[in-house]
């Protein structure tokens, strides 16, 4: 069970989920052009910041690539938000499709919510992000994505099983993700 929990945690990590969401929504809405802008949005909101986390981990500045130490999360989130805003400016200058711009803004909004909570308490970012992606997919792409709503439960189980979060920390990630998904769907 421990191995399954580790696999779920890695496969549905925030970087993977945000990247897949931005690429998929971009491609679905605008084909290859949307895929390109989704890739650009993912670079600035997920891939680039994750590369910074990996570097910080190797330099001993953060505990691990999931930034398990709550006190280390705020500077990481602030850096990711700055990167996201740089990506937003670039997307606007290049005339990106609305779905890519709203997707990037939603990820930044999610970082604000998670950062605010994590300044005081350790909310599960994994569960928050996977809930956002699942709910936003259902709201904007249709009922064919309803099975995705099971993923947050599996990821939440994995985070508790690995002792990375308490049940309460996992459960609070769900409404955080729902708030961001509602904002995403509302602005599309």
From TrEMBL:
Keywords: Membrane, Transmembrane, Transmembrane helix. The chain crosses the membrane at residues 7-28, 34-56, 76-95, 101-121, 128-155, 167-187. This is Phosphatidic acid phosphatase.
């Amino acid at each position: 069970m421990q191995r399954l929990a580790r696999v779920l945690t890695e496969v549905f990590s925030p970087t993977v989920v945000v990247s897949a969401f931005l690429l998929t929504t971009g491609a679905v809405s605008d084909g290859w052009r949307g895929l390109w802008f989704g890739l650009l949005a993912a670079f600035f909101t997920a891939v680039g910041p994750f590369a910074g986390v990996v570097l910080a981990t190797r330099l001993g500045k953060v505990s691990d690539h999931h930034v398990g130490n709550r006190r280390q999360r705020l500077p990481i989130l602030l850096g990711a938000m700055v990167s996201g805003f740089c990506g937003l400016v670039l997307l606007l200058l290049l005339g990106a499709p609305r779905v890519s711009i709203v997707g990037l803004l939603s990820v930044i909004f999610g970082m604000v919510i998670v950062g605010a909570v994590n300044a005081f308490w350790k909310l599960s970012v994994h569960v928050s992000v996977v809930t956002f992606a699942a709910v936003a997919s259902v709201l904007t792409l249709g009922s064919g994505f309803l099975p995705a709503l099971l993923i947050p439960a599996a990821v939440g189980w994995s985070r508790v099983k690995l002792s990375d979060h308490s049940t309460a920390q996992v459960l609070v990630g769900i409404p955080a993700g729902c708030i961001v998904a509602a904002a995403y769907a509302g602005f599309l």
